[in-house]
Amino acid sequence: MSFGALSPNAIRALNKGAKLGGFAHDTGEGSISAYHREFGGDIIWEIGSGYFGCRNDNGTFSDEKFLAQVGDPQIKMVEIKLSQGAKPGHGGVLPGAKVTAEIAATRGVPIGQDCVSPASHSEFSSPLELMKFIARLRKLSRGKPVGFKLCVGQPWEFFGIAKAMIETGIYPDFIVVDGSEGGTGAAPVEFTDHVGMPLREGLRFVHNTLVGINKRAEIAVGASGKIISGYDIIRAIALGADWCNSARGFMFALGCIQSRSCHTDKCPTGVATQDSARQRALVVPDKAERVFAFHKNTMESLAELIGAAGMMHPNQITPDYLMCRDATGKAISMGVELANIKPGSLLGGVNSFNEKDFPREYGLYWNRASVDKFGLK
Q1: Could you give the CA distance from residue 25 to residue 271 in angstroms, rounded to a whole number?
Q2: Are 224 and 245 in contact, with CB atoms under 8 Å apart?
Q3: Exposure of 329 by Cβ count < 10 A (0-12 exposed, 13-18 middle, 19+ buried)?
Q4: pTM to 2 decimals?
């Protein structure tokens, strides 16, 4: 949820709400603005392929500009965006009409020109190079947690990342799994409908992979993709998440009415516009309280569900507590239906794999995975 796509008042309200509620505010890939800093809420700095806020004039990553920002104590984590739910592998554009002098200064791009997020990163082009970039950012940030976000595409591509972790000994501190059902409304329809794994499948696959390389306890997993309610959070945790992100729910809390006019700069509620007159519709003190209340009430709903199930904490949730339907329509425990993997079972290779250790298709995916490129061997 970037500054530029969102108005200054929207960013202010989100960050103030986060400060009031004690939760974190992800910047989106549009970098950190003065409005993110105004109320002091915790920030997760997302860095996309455009390297906004830490880029050279030619669009490459700048160590110096990254260093100038990352030391801010308000920044708690650094997240490398590989892809997002609604348009993995596509990139994006902030239209030139919305690139004001303020946005240009925040992102480090020319005023009034289309601001392009390339489809791929220029700092790395393989899983091995991604691991080295993670280590580089961790060193530059003096040990702040560094991870990445992706919408899983082909399973062997993520297996390639897992193999690169093992080969280099470099591991991310966290991985955020986005679902194909989430992300931006600016995605091409074909991408929204057909590209990327849905959250349930992607999240379970990432969880299982980390279990299979004996690193699940050391790498935190976040989940995003149409997560709004307390039950949505419970389901994500059951599938393997440690925490959840929500964009859509907080957009509604800000006053979004889904007018589908974001790209026109004529948002009627002041959420997605740089027009100063239209921004007045979003009153920061009022909307910050609504952001805070949405989070608070969602957490209370989560607590009620946890208590009703006889548990004391969300970390006690397992797939066995949830029900789903099998291919015949029969209601069964999700613990029976979900793919499971034996801890460490991927470390020995798959030439002599046992179907009791991990699903059959994992053997095919693992053998296809490459550390030298994102794709097939």
Answers
A1: 16
A2: yes
A3: exposed
A4: 0.94
